[in-house]
Structures are given as C-alpha cells and as structure tokens.
C-alpha cells in the first residue's frame, strides 16, 4: 500500500486522553443479574502535580437525574463491603501525578426489563471531585440481566455467572474481595468465586437447558492474557436455576509472580455456557469465549501495581483510504492511524474484529497466515502474523511494535478483507483494539460498484 495514499487525522493526545480529561476505565462489573445489583469499578486519572481526590460518587440508581451516592476512602487493600474506594497507587511523573483507585458499593438498578427484553442497560456514572475544585466524570455501560425464563414475555433465560457480594458466599475476608484485590506478592487465594445460573436448567424440551461449565481468563490491562490462562480455560461448575449459592466454586490459589506474569492490572473474565440435553451440543445462548465483549467481569487484581510510565497514544480511523468491496471482488485494506505526543510506545496486543452481518472475511496474505501491516512515518513497513478466532470474526496479534518510537510520531496499521455475500450492502467498518485503545477502521463500503 502506497504511504502517500494514507489518511492523516491528527489528534491532540492530551485533550482526548480520558486519563487527563475524565477517568480512564481499567475494568468494572459490566454484566450481572438483578439479584446482584452491586457496583465495582477500577479507574485511573492523571492530574497536575499535587492534586488529590477529595470526593468519589457514583450513580446509585443508574441515572444522572437521580441521586449520586458518596463513597468513603479506606486504606489500600482493605477489601470492605460498604460504599468505599481505595487509592491503589499514586505515581509521580515529571509533569503530573497518576492516581489509580478501586470503587465498590451497592446499586439500585434491579428493575425488570421491558416486555420482550432479556436485560436492561444503564449508563452508570462515576464522578470524582478534585482538590483544585474541578470534577471528573465518566460513564460505563452496565447490562442488568433478568434471572428467569419466561418465554411468554420474551425473556429468553441465558446462562449467567453471579457477581459475589457481602459475606454470604465464602471468600476471604468477604465474598466480594476478588474485585479490586491488591496483591503485591502475586499470590491470590480464596478470592475468585464462580456461581453459574441457568434459568432453563432442568426444563424438558427447551434449548440450552443444561449448564455445567464456564470459560475463564485473567487478562492484563494491555490486552495480553496471564500466563495462567493463555486462552480461556474450561472450568466445571454445577449450574442451577435458583438464587442459592450452594453450587458455587472458588478457584484454587495461584501466584502470578511464580507464573512469570508482568505487574499490572488484571481483569477476571468469565463466559457462562449451556448445552442442549437433546443432543449435547453447545447452545447458541452460551457466551462466546472468542468475543471479549461477551465476558462477564466478576473480579480484578492489582498485581505489584504501579501506573504505567510508558507513553500514551491515540487510535483513530485512518490508514488506507475508504475501502469499497463487492462479493468476489478485490481485497480491501481497512485500517487505523496511531499517534503519540510522548513516545516511545512499547509493544502492544492488537485485536481486529469484523462487523456482524456484512459478509466480510479476513484474507490470508502471509506464507501462510493472516497479517497485520504496520507502516511507520518513514514509510518502513512490517508485517505480523495473527491468530484467527474459532468463529472467524476476530484476529489477535501479539507483541506488535506499533512504530511510535519518538516523542511526536505516528504510524498506520491495516488488515486484508474481502466481501463474500452478494446480498450484503452498506457502510461499515472493522474494530481495532490496540492495547487499551479502541477505534473503528477506515470506512468500508460493501456492495458499492
């Protein structure tokens, strides 16, 4: 691809970086049933030197027009069960301070979904007051699931895992200690609790009526998995339809340091599964372990955590010009543009996902293999071979040099795709996740002639 054809979209890193302007989300409890209406959030901010957090609030009812509740600061690593936050790390940079925190508390977002719906979605606000009089605000999307199977009202009853809370589930020192857990030595014991619920469990002649396992994975904040779980791990746990916790399982003790894992923040992700008793096949109601967006985050660990001192960067649509594809036609190269005003940026994990329902497919151009191409600002090009997910929708590339080597540098990256469905038409894009940063690709016109 000719570098002169690339689309340049300069972005001011400092004004677009959520660490500077709002709150950078590291992880949070993203999906749970109405039984487990609880808030868990891990975040980070960058502030001028000497500025402190003076107040932490969150939207108790999941709405900005109703009450925000205050959380009380407690010592790092306390693992309490009330409305609390902990400052996990304070890192001093040359021109700023980075404050990393964990937040927990009760929620009241347990209303049933609308008729014909399985869940209800909330944009849940987190608000920080700072000592210079300013306020930081961000929102995260929380999906609250209905725990029953009611086909008459369209509530389909997918399997789910519960979000442990308070003290009634086991765990040390309480049932919710596995979220925002601080482990300076890498040892994790009696923290991760998996309780698998399937509202269809045991019902005859119903699809997806048996659950007996999940998949789980520990994933670093930069997108790379722990050495403990290089791929999602199958874990047997007995499913049930009621709200009891007698079938829960607590993961065995592990040590991230002994495994050779790098320090940082890790999300504990789980994908609930169900099968059909009629044929033993995996039900379409299962959550796909090849899709990060299907995961339930029910825990997190700060392992020897210090906020990254590496440079921030931005990812925006860019790379080759708009891509036009027709079924059986030429290969297209949708991509993104990366920029940094700090540099250098270390190696990153890159995931590229196809849009659903547009009939696109990745194209192998390696010998063999699917490739990610990275082009630096001097026109030097390098290719990386990736791994295709089982469903063919996502490519993962590890240890990618994103070619942001200086204090002010840019690069582009792209993949090869083709159109396969002659009936698919419209404007779409691929999704690129580079480390923690996500962007849509160059626009793709499907079916245009």
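Q: What amino acid sequence fits the structure above?
A:
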């Amino acid at each position: 691809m000719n570098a002169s054809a690339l689309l340049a979209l300069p972005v001011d890193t400092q004004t677009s970086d959520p660490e500077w302007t709002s709150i950078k989300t590291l992880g949070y409890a993203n999906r749970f049933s109405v039984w487990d209406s609880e808030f868990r959030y891990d975040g980070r901010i960058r502030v001028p030197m000497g500025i402190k957090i003076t107040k932490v609030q969150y939207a108790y009812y999941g709405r900005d027009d109703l009450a925000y509740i205050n959380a009380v600061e407690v010592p790092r690593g306390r693992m309490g069960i009330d409305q609390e936050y902990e400052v996990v790390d304070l890192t001093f940079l040359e021109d700023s301070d980075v404050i990393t925190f964990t937040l927990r508390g009760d929620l009241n977002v347990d209303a049933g979904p609308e008729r014909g719906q399985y869940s209800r979605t909330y944009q849940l606000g987190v608000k920080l007051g700072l000592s210079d009089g300013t306020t930081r605000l961000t929102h995260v999307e929380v999906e609250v699931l209905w725990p029953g199977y009611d086909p008459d009202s369209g509530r389909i009853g997918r399997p789910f895992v519960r979000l442990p809370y308070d003290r009634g589930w086991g765990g040390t020192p309480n049932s919710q200690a596995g979220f925002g857990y601080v482990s300076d030595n890498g040892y994790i014991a009696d923290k991760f609790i998996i309780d698998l619920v399937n509202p269809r469990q045991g019902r005859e002649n119903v699809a997806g009526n048996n659950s007996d396992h999940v998949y789980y994975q520990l994933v670093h904040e930069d997108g790379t998995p722990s050495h403990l779980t290089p791929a999602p791990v199958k874990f047997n746990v007995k499913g049930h339809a009621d709200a009891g916790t007698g079938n829960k399982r607590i993961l065995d003790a592990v040590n991230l340091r002994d495994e050779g894992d790098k320090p940082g923040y890790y999300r504990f992700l789980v994908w609930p599964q169900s099968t059909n008793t009629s044929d033993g096949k995996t039900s379409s109601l299962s959550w796909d372990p090849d899709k990060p967006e299907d995961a339930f985050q029910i825990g997190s660990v700060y392992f020897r955590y210090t906020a990254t001192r590496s440079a921030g960067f931005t990812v925006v649509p860019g790379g080759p010009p708009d891509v036009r594809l027709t079924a059986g036609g030429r290969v297209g190269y949708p991509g993104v543009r990366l920029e940094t005003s700090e540099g250098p940026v270390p190696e990153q994990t890159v995931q590229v996902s196809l849009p659903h329902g547009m009939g696109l497919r990745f194209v192998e151009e390696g010998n063999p293999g699917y490739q990610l191409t990275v082009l630096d600002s001097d026109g030097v090009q390098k290719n990386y071979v990736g791994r295709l997910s089982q469903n063919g929708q996502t490519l993962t590339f590890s240890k990618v040099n994103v070619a942001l080597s200086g204090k002010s540098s840019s690069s582009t990256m792209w993949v090869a795709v083709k159109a396969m469905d002659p009936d698919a038409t419209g404007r779409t894009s691929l999704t690129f996740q580079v480390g923690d940063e996500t962007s849509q690709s160059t626009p793709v016109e499907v079916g245009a002639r």
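Q: And what stands out in the fold?
A: The first helix runs from residue 13 to 16.
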